Amino acid sequence: MSHLLLGGEVDAPAAVAPAPAELSQPQPALAADDTTAHCAIAIIGGGVAGLHTALRLAERFGPRLCLFEQDACLGGRVSDIPASDEQAAGPFVQLGARRIMEGQSVLTQLAEELGIPLQKPEMLEELGFTRGMYATNNDEFIRVFPGLDVDRSRGGYEIQLYEKLLRGPERRHVDDYPNLRAYAEKVIGAEGCAFLHGTYRFRADHEYDLSAKAYLDYLDEENDAGAICPSGHCQSLYPVGGMSAYTRGMEQRVRDLGVQLHLGEAVQSIDKSPAGYLIKTPRRAITASTLVIALPPVALGQVQGGIAESIRAQAEFQALVGVRVTTITQWYREPWWRGIVTANGRHVWRAWTTGHCINSVEIPLEEYASTQNAIRVVYNDQTDCADLWARLAQGPLEALEREVAIGLNHLFADNGVTRPVHIGTPSRTVFREWPDAWYYLRSGNHFSNRDIFRWAVQPLPGEDVALVSDGYNPQRSGWADAAYKSSIHYLNQRFGMGLPGLERRA
């Protein structure tokens, strides 16, 4: 029977919430010899940035290192769930981050360290729809963008537009523009902006009020990592075991080294104390000499206390803007998507559309995921569509699944480009929303991405407090990569570890 999971939380064991009386009463003092009474280092947040920081510090600090995570499991936005209720140990289906790029050396090297195989499928074809037209090559859309200012003899129109944005003479004057949109319209024109918005699967880049300079700097790093390329045909690598294979590997090593992991225990407040920093949860109060806050900005906004408030008051913190993202994953008894092939028999691995709020569909081709009969049918960062999916997720499941089916039929049932397919009835549907899947810098501030990156190592002068998360690394490449780089930067600056991976920042 089909069912809906809100937030992907139902499949994970729920943390036991304290009884109301327990919350309202003072917590008993911990014994002086109890290592939870004082931690040398406290890490708040068990996403990949916090967990990676714990991994690298574990050999030095062992049980004197404490990590607090509000959820019952680690990983944060690297959110995988078992393929079925009967397979708790896997295989896993990814609801958030799905892959890494071949140029992301931090993640390829960590996979080798943790013994995680990476599969490298051929990406094959990509199907798109915009302005009433279907095509498997973005250049073909020139027919519905007749005013596009590109060299038609060269082809690669998407890349031509990005080249103008990144390498054109106007970039020297980027600080003169109030936001990304104004700069882009000047350089590539309104039709060029419409082309990138219409033929690129991410919409938020062109919808949020972003700093032009910071965004272009971010694109430079994306290009270096191989994450931006014509029609998305870059080489992706998929970890066997899903992206949570990284989480499980790091968690096991951290546990083996004695680090204290407090799962299902949200930090409510952070204050100064004579012993360093006072951290309160619903269950306990502890102190720590060093504090690593591995919470993204939106989560830090929920923490009380003087330290959290002081960080939020910083201009750097206020410059950050999170991008809201929705994913919907569905399981089917038969993998109908294997029939989506072009006239010459090439399979489609991704499809996108401006004609429906499913926005982007990703079809697993890697061996590990392709046999699980699960497909990501919605990948959306368009704000109005996020509102639609959130509203449907609150109502009857049938209404949400009916809307997904409309979008899938619009893309695949009879588009005149790929062979028609019959889309079946899903046996399971999982809805997931992130209010801040990644971060940019908003317009109107004078900070660069690197300014934020450096600030996060010590956001409060004189305090042994750091921020590690992809939220504080807008100069990112990919979801997970930015979080690891944030952790590496802190570890290198604070502990002199000399970890590789930040060479592009020289």
List keywords for this structure.
4-stranded mixed beta sheet; single chain; 506 residues; FAD/NAD(P)-binding domain; 7-stranded mixed beta sheet; 16 helices; globular; 32% helix; disordered N terminus; alpha/beta; 20 strands
Explain how this protein is built:
- This protein is of the alpha/beta class.
- Among the domains are: 14-78 and 243-319 and 444-505, FAD/NAD(P)-binding domain (3-Layer(bba) Sandwich); 135-232.
- Helices cover 32% and strands 21% of the residues.
- It contains 16 helices and 20 strands.
- It has helices at residues 20-24, 48-61, 105-114, 157-167, 180-199, 204-207, 212-225, 244-256, 297-300, 306-312, 315-318, 367-370, 383-393, 397-412, 449-455, 479-495; strands at 4-6, 38-44, 65-69, 80-82, 92-94, 100-101, 118-119, 125-130, 133-135, 236-239, 260-263, 269-273, 276-280, 285-293, 320-331, 348-353, 360-362, 374-380, 428-441, 465-467.
- The strands form five sheets. Strands 2, 3, 11, 12, 13, 14 and 20 form a seven-stranded mixed β-sheet that branches. A four-stranded mixed β-sheet has the order 1-19-15-18.
- Helix 2 (48-61) links the parallel strand 2 and strand 3.
- Helix 2 (48-61) packs parallel to helix 8, helix 2 runs parallel beside helix 16 and helix 4 runs antiparallel to helix 5 (180-199).
- The radius of gyration is 23 Å and the shape is globular.
- The N and C termini lie far apart (54 Å).
- The model is unreliable at 1-35 (pLDDT under 50).
- Residues 48-439 form the Amine oxidase domain.
- Belongs to the flavin monoamine oxidase family.
